[in-house]
Automatic annotation (TrEMBL):
Gene3D superfamilies: P-loop containing nucleotide triphosphate hydrolases
GO cellular component term of the entry, any: ATP-binding cassette (ABC) transporter complex
High-level lineage: Bacteria, Bacillati, Actinomycetota, Actinomycetes, Bifidobacteriales
Pfam families noted in UniProt: ABC_tran
Domain ABC transporter: 3-236
Family the entry assigns: Belongs to the ABC transporter superfamily.
PROSITE patterns the record matches: ABC_TRANSPORTER_2
Family annotation (InterPro entries): AAA+_ATPase, ABC_transporter-like_ATP-bd, ABC_transpr_CbiO/EcfA_su, ECF_ABC_transporter_ATP-bd, P-loop_NTPase
Origin: domain of life: Bacteria
Protein name per its UniProtKB record: ABC transporter
Length: 269
């Protein structure tokens, strides 16, 4: 699937622009993280990808078709959106029913639903909790219930809005496994995140936004090496990357082994 944003503008009734002429393309299976401070336009942008919001001007094209030509329900069958707050998405009395709801709406048979549920429940770590009420789950598992409900639809694109919010280390690792598995399946993950360590660990492409504009878009090592631009957007690189930069190392690093290797290389010059 190819998603193209062309001169995308979204204005509030006050006239203020949440998006100000954004041009971006998403395609393939390379996971993409969208970063920036609150108010940068990140959530506004991704809500245009499946028609939750519509452009004030400009275009959103899905495989060449303008998003204005169809309803949000149609696009939601192609692009799954996982809200930041699970309470905005959950409304049924068991995890199982949450997982079944979307597939039933599109006429999927029970046999296929059961096959999908087995795979998805295992992936999100809820196999033993399918008959639990979602609001009886802890915050971490509640989030994974919303993720599972979207994954059941098998959309080509999965959009995560602040997936690490409220997560512990184990939850972040579970999220990482999900993103990697979706990539292996040829599906595109797009995530909004303030967690730069999570971004650097799980995403190869990073888009930096500030005040409704795209300031940087490229491989994570290139984006996180642009210290002055990151400061302009009030974004700081991951902790280990900052240590490396402050130590005068000539390339961004994201893992301890990479840091050690960079230190050794610097000592040989």
């Amino acid at each position: 699937m190819k998603i193209e944003l062309q001169e995308l503008v979204h204005s509030y009734p006050s006239g203020d622009r949440a998006l100000d002429g954004v041009n971006l393309t998403f395609e393939g299976q390379e996971p993409v993280a969208i970063i920036g401070q609150n108010g940068a336009g990140k959530t506004t942008l991704v809500k245009h990808l499946n028609g939750i919001l519509r452009p004030s001007s400009g275009h959103v094209l899905i495989d060449g078709t303008d998003i204005e030509t169809a309803s949000t329900a149609k696009w939601s069958a192609k692009l799954g959106y996982i809200f930041q707050n699970p309470d905005d998405q959950l409304f049924l009395e068991s995890v199982r029913k949450e997982f079944e709801f979307g597939p039933r709406q599109i006429g999927m048979g029970q046999e296929e639903i059961d096959r999908r549920m087995e795979r998805v429940a295992d992936l999100v770590g809820l196999t033993g909790k399918l008959d639990t009420h979602p609001f009886d789950l802890g915050p971490t598992d509640k989030k994974f219930c919303t993720i599972g409900a979207v994954l059941m639809m098998n959309t080509q694109v999965v959009i995560f809005d602040e997936p690490t919010c409220g997560q512990d280390k184990a939850g972040n690792e579970r999220l990482g496994r999900i993103i990697a598995e979706l990539g292996r399946q040829g599906r595109l993950c797009i995530a909004i995140s303030h967690d730069m360590k999570f971004v650097s660990t799980n995403f190869s492409r990073v888009v930096l936004m500030c005040q409704g504009k795209v300031l940087l878009d490229g491989p994570k090592d290139q984006v996180f090496s642009q210290e002055s631009v990151l400061k302009q957007a009030y974004v700081t690189p991951p902790p280990l990357t900052r240590v490396a930069q402050e130590s005068g190392l000539d390339r961004p690093v994201f893992t301890v082994p990479a840091f050690i290797e960079a230190v050794k290389d610097a000592g040989q010059h």
